[in-house]
Write a structure and sequence with these properties.
Shape: globular
Number of strands: 0
Helix content: over 70%
Low-confidence stretches: none
Order of helices and strands: HHHHH
Number of helices: 5
Strand content: under 5%
Largest sheet: none
Structural class: mainly alpha
Distance between the termini: 11 Å
Mean pLDDT: 96
Length: 123
């Protein structure tokens, strides 16, 4: 189970780090062109905030568990990143981007599985 959790944590960390870095350095038009259509009508300071939250969450998915320093932060990071997927799903649903909604729900499920696994199954 530990190996499965590490694989999922790594995949989610890569996904959120990429998304967070993009949101931190690109403007809304560039993000939409790259496929991150959910940010199209959001103000740039809010996009930057989401990007910073995703970067910190990605770091939180890996380092607390890896370094055995406050490993509970890994579960908290996974829950927080999962919560980001809820408004993202709503935005994409309203845009009729149903495949993206399915992807958001999958990421939410994986994040919740990581949180449960790190909190209750593997320490």
């Amino acid at each position: 189970m530990n190996i499965i959790l590490w694989i999922l944590q790594t995949l989610m960390a890569i996904l959120f780090m990429y998304s967070g870095v993009c949101k931190s350095i690109f403007n809304a038009a560039t993000l939409v062109a790259k496929g991150q259509t959910g940010v199209e009508k959001l103000p740039i300071p809010f996009i930057r905030f989401i990007g910073a939250a995703e970067i910190l969450g990605a770091i939180g998915l890996i380092f607390p568990a890896l370094l055995h320093i406050a490993p509970g932060l890994t579960a908290i990071s996974a829950i927080c990143l999962g919560f980001i997927m809820v408004p993202a799903s709503v935005i994409h649903y309203l845009r009729k981007e149903y495949k993206t909604v399915i992807g958001n729900c999958a990421v939410l499920s994986i994040c919740l599985f990581i949180a449960y696994g790190r909190a209750f199954l593997v320490n």
